[in-house]
Amino acid sequence: MEFEQNEEIEDKAAESRKAEKKRGFIEMVLPVLTLMTIANCIVILVLVINIGRKVNWLEQQVILLQDNVISVEARIEGSMLSDGSGFSDVFDIDGNVVDAAEAADIVEAAALEDTHKLEGREDSSDGIRRVYLTFDDGPSANTDKILDILEQYGVKATFFVVGKDGYAEQYRRIVEEGHTLAMHSYSHKYSEIYASLDAYKADLMKLHDFLYELTGEDCSVVRFPGGSSNTISHVNMWELIHYLNQENMVYFDWNVSSGDAASGGRSADQITSNVLDNIDKFDNAVVLFHDAVGKDTTVEALPVIIEKILESDNTVMLPIKQDTVRVQHLQE
Ligand SMILES: [Zn+2]
């Protein structure tokens, strides 16, 4: 009997030891499990954030790839010239035949200038849409026609000119009729001006002094051939931009392209819709046209474009000035 009782007591003691062991085990494991759960949550959170970043990175890569495709397509098109397999329709701004390397740059620049640049810096303003009509690569015979149309509608624009003899009257007309005489490049030869910072400086100063002598204007508004985002320059474009800053000059790109840069040309209807379908996207729309030799459809399209803009509410057309809201592809 006593023996049985002792056994019972021992059993109970053993059981309670077991229970205590179990409790001890749970007390030890519980914080570890909690810590592990927290750690897992952190890991999952980090993974989710990283996936988001990766998606952003991928989107950026796609945009870069698209830009590169334009550049490569233009290069291929240009390089075919050296094989003598066509593309005899690539001319410089004066309508002259150029060598294969320059032709490749011209085709590439035309492709770049044919695109709207939605990412261009542009701060919204006071509910008034400002449209800046800009004309590159003149003067030519088309410049007079464009000046006549602008005069007829009482509209002021901006001319990013090159250096050409025999057009003194056109440079002066631009200034006298209240438009902005702005600088593009004296030679407009990509291989020359983008060979080095010094080459760019020399070309721009030559143009500046040339225009000062002809018109008395101390020009300070600039547009880079191919734009600041061009893929042609052998010099880092920031070097050129810093140089302009030092000289107290300001550069402008565009956010709306009329599409008239293409060598093959565009119909007046295409040019008109390229402009009118896109200016509404911006409070400050800088529209890229060309008034070089052969840009006859630009002249043809201009009256309709101006009339439609004049009909738009709260919209003004202005020439670019130093203090105009900057539309620039490269942002500081
Ligand atoms: Zn140009």
Short description:
With 332 residues, the chain is of the alpha/beta class. Helix content is 53%, strand content 11%. Bound molecules: zinc ion.
Helix residue percentage = 40-55%
> What is the tally of beta strands?
8
Instruction: Report how far the terminal alpha carbons are from each other.
Output: 98 Å
The top-level CATH class of the largest domain is: Alpha Beta
Number of helices: 9
Question: Keyphrases for this structure?
Answer:
9 helices, binds zinc ion, single chain, alpha/beta, two-stranded parallel sheet, TIM Barrel, about 325 residues
Helices and strands, with pairings:
Layout: H1 2-82, H2 100-113, E1 129-136, H3 141-153, E2 158-162, H4 168-176, E3 180-185, H5 190-193, H6 197-215, E4 221-222, H7 237-246, E5 250-251, E6 256-257, H8 268-276, E7 284-290, H9 296-311, E8 315-317
Parallel strand pairs: 1-2, 1-7, 1-8, 2-3, 4-5, 6-7
Helix pairs in contact: 1-2, 3-9, 8-9
Structure overview:
The protein has nine helices and eight strands. With 332 residues, it is an alpha/beta fold. The chain folds into two domains: 1-81; 111-317, Alpha-Beta Barrel (TIM Barrel), CATH 3.20.20.370. Strands 1, 2, 3, 6, 7 and 8 form a six-stranded parallel β-sheet that branches. Strands 4-5 form a two-stranded parallel sheet. Helix 7 (237-246) links the parallel strand 4 (221-222) and strand 5 (250-251). Helix 3 (141-153) packs parallel to helix 9. The longest helix has 81 residues, at 2-82. The chain is elongated and about 130 Å long. Residues 77-86 have low confidence and may be disordered. Zinc ion is lined by residues 136-137, 184, 188, 225. Zinc ion binds at residues 136-137, 184, 188, 225.
